Amino acid sequence: MSTSPIEAVAAVIKAASNPVYVTQPAKSAASKWAELLEFTPLIDSNEPLALVAGYIDANDVSEDDVRPTTVVVTDGTTLLQNLPFLSLSAYKKTPVVINVDLSAGDYGVVTAFSDAQIPIFVSQNAADAFVHTQAAFAAAASEKSAVLNFFSSASASEKITTDISSQPQGTFSDILVQYNINAFLALNKVSNAKDAIVFLGQTSPELVKAATAQKALLYTVNVFQPLDLEALLSIIPSSVETLTLVEQTTKIASFSPLLLEFFKKYPQFQHLKNFTKIVGAKYAHASDASSATSNLLANTRSASPLQNVLFGKADGTASSEAQTAQSEKQAGQLKVYELEQAYLKVLNQVNPNSTVLNDISEKTLGGSSNPEFGFGSYLYFKERQNNLAALVSAYIQKGVFSSLDNEKLVELLSQWLVQLKQGKAFASVEELLNILSSDQSEPAKEILSLKDYFTIQSKWLVGSDAWSYDLGSSGVHNVISSGENVNMLVIDSEPYSSKKAGALRKKDIGLYAMNYGNCYVASVAIYSSYTQVLQAFIEAEKFNGPSIVLAYLPYETEDAQVLSILKDTKAAVDSGYWPLYRFDSAQEEDSLRFKLDSSALRTQLRDFLDRENKLTLLAKKNPQLSRNLTASANSEAKKRQAQLEDESYKQLLQGLSGPPLTIGFASDGGNAEAVAKKINRQALARGLKSIVLSMDDISVEDLPLETNIVFVTSTAGQGEFPNNGKGFWDELKLSQDLDLSSIRFSVFGLGDSKYWPRKEDKHYYNKPAVDLFNKLEFYGGVELAGLGLGDDQDPDGFSTGYDDWLPKIWTALGVDNVEGIEEPKPLTNEDMKIQSDYLRGTIAEGLRDESTGAICAVDQQLTKFHGIYMQDDRDIRDERKAQGLEPAYSFMVRLRLPGGAANPSQYLRLDELADVRGNGTLKITTRATFQLHGVVKHNMKPAIRGMNGVLLDTLAACGDVNRNVMVSALPENAKVHKQIADTGALISEHLLPETTAYHEIWLEGADDQDYAGDREKWEARPDGPKKKKTMVAGNALVDYEPQYGPTYLPRKFKVVITVPPYNDVDVYAHDIGLIAIVENNNVIGYNLLAGGGMGSTHNNVKTYPRTGSMLGFVPIEKVHIACENVMLVQRDFGDRTNRKHARLKYTVDDLGVDVFKQKVEEYWGESFEEPRAFEIKSNVDYFGWVKDETGLNHFTAFIENGRIEDTASLPQKSGLRELAKYLISQNTSGEFRLTGNQHMVISNISDDHLAAVKEILAKYKLDNTEFSALRLSSSSCVALPTCGLAMAESERYLPELITKLEQSLEEYGLRHDSVVMRMTGCPNGCARPWLAEVALVGKAPGAYNLLLGGGHHGHRLNKIYRYSIKEHEILSILKPLFKRWSLERNEGEPFGDFCIRIGEIKETTEGKYFHEGIPEDA
Ligand SMILES: Cc1cc2nc3c(=O)[nH]c(=O)nc-3n(C[C@H](O)[C@H](O)[C@H](O)COP(=O)(O)O)c2cc1C
Ligand code: SF4
């Protein structure tokens, strides 16, 4: 009678009469073992191996007693699910034979246990199974551990004798000898065979025949662990040249654990056999073994065989993937292998029902498949699922169902609730829904409407190591801090070989997560331990909370060779760079929380463990580890070096990639960083192993380990290193005994030879680059290429020097003849606008992202159009960086306030919002509106809603659109002021963008930060700025921008209105300046100036400030249309390719004023009239009280630099609050009007309230106008600490500087003589410094360019008088000049005019001549 494999195994088990556990799908399921054995059944899904371990532990025996061998019978899938339990001590210390039926034919399960460190037998047939099971019992007893015994019940029955031999004693190899088991068995004979196949799976006579026909030797595996490679290599004849390692499986692609196992040991035995090719392959059940085998061998024999291809298809098509792939490859069409799939396939193997939330099927990881969005969709799903759970539990309690089987329904619903709570899968969804569908009640219908949310699945997010660079603002932080039951797979693909220099270059996600606690963390590497990857996935799935699996998969390109990945993984794991571990925060016992699966550790992880006291525990638990634990990563690296010296191994691995190159950059403004990244892209394209990182992330200590290193540094301050290079430079400078003789280096510097133009400052030019180059040379570094210097002053800026230097680097690295890559075009502001869907971008999503205080770069550009700028507190940037925190991000929120007036209720709301949503201060801007500073992300929506509640908004307060329209404050003329304010409001509304994005993003929906009752307040103006969508064909409502189009304007656009003789708005400084022409106290129209603008760039003579050019007179009723047409010409003719040349002023100069005017008239269809006569006399404010023609009173209060705040001596913010409250309580007409000089007019006060108002002003020191005329005429921009462009202090410094000048002015009798003095932190010119009589424009901390000669009433530009001078120089220049002015001026001659008349400075007649005639000794 023939015996089946099951019978053979059962016979052995029965003879042993030990406790036997058999797993089965359900209690009631019939087991094929029932007739053969007595056993305890265990349920597959109940973690049977954990239960068995529990039984073993409970059945404790004394040390001396002999343990009975426990027997488990299970199937491959269940065993795989239970993989983590094999590390329990029961399986390490007691004999257990685990018999596994692989009837499903997937031998992938066998290799999953490669690293479990227990013996593994694999049987081909009943005879094998009979012998192997006996051997397994013997081995379990001798090893005192678990043994895995794989067989397949699908194999045919055969005639065997089932006499049990007596159990032999001895070591594992003794047992094999006694049972006559060969680890590998030759299945055929072929003389002079050139190819050998090792087959892990179920062989068949057809397969043997096919191999023989192909003249290939076929070997089967009897003992998979320990893998006796020596035995295999010694039986393969010397004629064999190629080896194909085949695994029978259908599941995993692009990764072969068998091949991995082979390579782990091969270098040790390579002297026995040197194959020309070693190929891993997969084999499915093939109906046509002959064709599958021939394809398999054809692949191995081809010039460049593909690894891990699946041969033979179960459906019998027997088409070979390899054949197809090979031909595609030959046709140059082979799609690059997606290596990361290795992990995803394993994940799928562990749990075929797991869901990857971010769809990565199309793109490679780290591309546009955004994990943050995946997380968002999870949260959405979860919220709906929670709603469903709440409904279900409420209806269960109410007992409202009327289905066919209510009892069953309630039971299933309750089970579902329990499973949901535990995060476990629920198998009976279909049954539940069937019963529910029979219920016609409303509750049942309601539940059914949410039926999609009954599925309980494990959810995975897949991301790349890009997340490690800014953890605080990444999805990683998002997921961990959420506490949600979400799993993350983070694949790090950067090869270790290209990152030896920097231990600190990336932040360690694992450490970050472990420090956070409350999660599961595993660090795995599939090419180091496949078993550990499986364990990690299974544990992560089980963990009820966030899990992070960090997976290492180093490769240079996507079609990287398996060997290169293997080599790199090995080096990284061996050196401790990529330790393998698992951390389970849910484990109560400390020693179980952290499991180290590799031996060496990086310093950082060691420190973490030290801190957590886990290192000692680990060392105690595992004594042989302690030596490794204390060995430093450096010595491990050296060991690795020695290992690589192994010549033959090297030979095998050679030719996999080009030489390494590290690129370090230091950059403040981004130029040097961009250059470094560009070099890196080019290097990678040329086949170099290149990496780019900031200089502060390079460890000086590890510098000698580099091979080739290139530094790119710009120059900051006065010849200083930029911030992210300072640390490195300080360490390098102070290093002693640094030997760099083994590295090749070069340096490229970015600087500006005119930044410090004085002769004595010449050495500041590119100083960091020069110093660094000399230092590296001093330490013995070998030049890769000479020092390269880029100069902003060269025709192409720094590119001139760069283009000369870079080719030398490629030549030195031997890759000069390789084609580089086409650089992708950087995303321009124009791209951002057009892709933004009418200014939406991902602002709404960014606001919801609580893991960072920032929003993404593109949204930072887009929020400007909504009146919002992201900033960070630069005062504490370094400190926060040192603490590993992201910068202190907050936002500036600017109001659109056409006409510059706020009623007391509006003012009061702003005052309140500044306190509760901002930094407690309000800023009056140089364009007569309010700004809130320090508004953190989660406060932005409530802040904007708060404004909306009092009919204020921020739309178009910044951005490439028409911004706030500013009008002259004009306190003494009520009628004219009303007329210009109305014109201002009309223009502002007329040119307002039409997008509904503002309303959608800021005003719709509930927000966590809204206070109770807030909603009613802000909904008082539900539309926000009154914009609506447009109906297009097909009845779709879409956004439409009739004036702007989807790309809006090339740059910002500003309109102001003034009334001569006043010019408090600086009418010449804006894109459009309107000069009101008043006849009989009535505005009849405006003279229109176009093309004024302030922004420029230091030392870039192509940029300059400009005063507006007169186009002519426009009647009042047409002025908004004239403005629109000026704007439209700029929209169409403005330079959209260069933002530094995009303002209207350049368009006017490029076209010429006449042509420009002509174009506007063409667009408009009307002509400008001749300009009317007017006379402007000043651009300052007049402080104190005035009465207008209607009898209302107005007080211009001095608010220094527009900052409304309470200081000990000046409680101005409290005062204005009191005043607003008073004006509201008395129901007065009073309001708050802002001036372009950043002051405030308390306006429209009737005589009966005058005394009370005066009293409040006096009480809060708001009535003090007794300042020097210089102070009263001064203004500054915000600059540090919030403005990202600031190069020097401004608002915080100008008052101090003025104090230092005041004493002298007093002395010269100039206290009451107005001099317009302005300061800005950079040449962007927000406080319009270029029109001031004295201007200071920041260049570097403490250093300013001094400009003189501006027109007293803002009609003439000034000119640079001295470059980059410090305070003592400023004082020593200005004081004597003021003195001369006091003595030598003509009657009424302003200081600016005086400076020109006496020849101190040349007059600037037009913007384009701004850079001409600068003093030679400037
Ligand atoms: C505040 C500041 C100070 C500078 N100081 C110098 C200097 O001392 N020497 C020099 O050669 N270039 C100097 N520059 C010019 C820059 O190094 C040059 O513009 C470079 O391209 C900026 O690169 P980055 O964007 O990477 O910071 C300075 C630039 C700025 C903004
Ligand atoms: S002038 Fe420059 S430093 Fe000052 S606020 Fe404007 S951009 Fe910032």
Automatic annotation (TrEMBL):
<dbReference type="InterPro" id="IPR008254">
    <property type="entry name" value="Flavodoxin/NO_synth"/>
</dbReference>
<dbReference type="GO" id="GO:0046872">
    <property type="term" value="F:metal ion binding"/>
</dbReference>
<keyword id="KW-0479">Metal-binding</keyword>
<dbReference type="Pfam" id="PF01077">
    <property type="entry name" value="NIR_SIR"/>
</dbReference>
<dbReference type="InterPro" id="IPR001094">
    <property type="entry name" value="Flavdoxin-like"/>
</dbReference>
<comment type="function">
    <text>Catalyzes the reduction of sulfite to sulfide, one of several activities required for the biosynthesis of L-cysteine from sulfate.</text>
</comment>
<dbReference type="GO" id="GO:0005737">
    <property type="term" value="C:cytoplasm"/>
</dbReference>
<keyword id="KW-0349">Heme</keyword>
<keyword id="KW-0560">Oxidoreductase</keyword>
<dbReference type="InterPro" id="IPR029061">
    <property type="entry name" value="THDP-binding"/>
</dbReference>
<keyword id="KW-0411">Iron-sulfur</keyword>
<dbReference type="InterPro" id="IPR045854">
    <property type="entry name" value="NO2/SO3_Rdtase_4Fe4S_sf"/>
</dbReference>
<protein>
    <recommendedName>
        <fullName>Sulfite reductase [NADPH] subunit beta</fullName>
        <ecNumber>1.8.1.2</ecNumber>
    </recommendedName>
</protein>
<dbReference type="GO" id="GO:0000103">
    <property type="term" value="P:sulfate assimilation"/>
</dbReference>
<dbReference type="Pfam" id="PF00258">
    <property type="entry name" value="Flavodoxin_1"/>
</dbReference>
<dbReference type="GO" id="GO:0050311">
    <property type="term" value="F:sulfite reductase (ferredoxin) activity"/>
</dbReference>
<dbReference type="GO" id="GO:0020037">
    <property type="term" value="F:heme binding"/>
</dbReference>
<keyword id="KW-0408">Iron</keyword>
<dbReference type="InterPro" id="IPR029039">
    <property type="entry name" value="Flavoprotein-like_sf"/>
</dbReference>
<dbReference type="GO" id="GO:0004783">
    <property type="term" value="F:sulfite reductase (NADPH) activity"/>
</dbReference>
<dbReference type="GO" id="GO:0010181">
    <property type="term" value="F:FMN binding"/>
</dbReference>
<keyword id="KW-0521">NADP</keyword>
<comment type="subunit">
    <text>Alpha(2)-beta(2). The alpha component is a flavoprotein, the beta component is a hemoprotein.</text>
</comment>
<dbReference type="InterPro" id="IPR006067">
    <property type="entry name" value="NO2/SO3_Rdtase_4Fe4S_dom"/>
</dbReference>
<comment type="pathway">
    <text>Sulfur metabolism; hydrogen sulfide biosynthesis; hydrogen sulfide from sulfite (NADPH route): step 1/1.</text>
</comment>
<dbReference type="InterPro" id="IPR006066">
    <property type="entry name" value="NO2/SO3_Rdtase_FeS/sirohaem_BS"/>
</dbReference>
<dbReference type="GO" id="GO:0009337">
    <property type="term" value="C:sulfite reductase complex (NADPH)"/>
</dbReference>
<keyword id="KW-0004">4Fe-4S</keyword>
<dbReference type="InterPro" id="IPR036136">
    <property type="entry name" value="Nit/Sulf_reduc_fer-like_dom_sf"/>
</dbReference>
<comment type="similarity">
    <text>Belongs to the nitrite and sulfite reductase 4Fe-4S domain family.</text>
</comment>
<feature type="domain" description="Flavodoxin-like">
    <location>
        <begin position="661"/>
        <end position="810"/>
    </location>
</feature>
<keyword id="KW-0963">Cytoplasm</keyword>
<dbReference type="InterPro" id="IPR045169">
    <property type="entry name" value="NO2/SO3_Rdtase_4Fe4S_prot"/>
</dbReference>
<dbReference type="InterPro" id="IPR005117">
    <property type="entry name" value="NiRdtase/SiRdtase_haem-b_fer"/>
</dbReference>
<dbReference type="Pfam" id="PF03460">
    <property type="entry name" value="NIR_SIR_ferr"/>
</dbReference>
<dbReference type="GO" id="GO:0051539">
    <property type="term" value="F:4 iron, 4 sulfur cluster binding"/>
</dbReference>
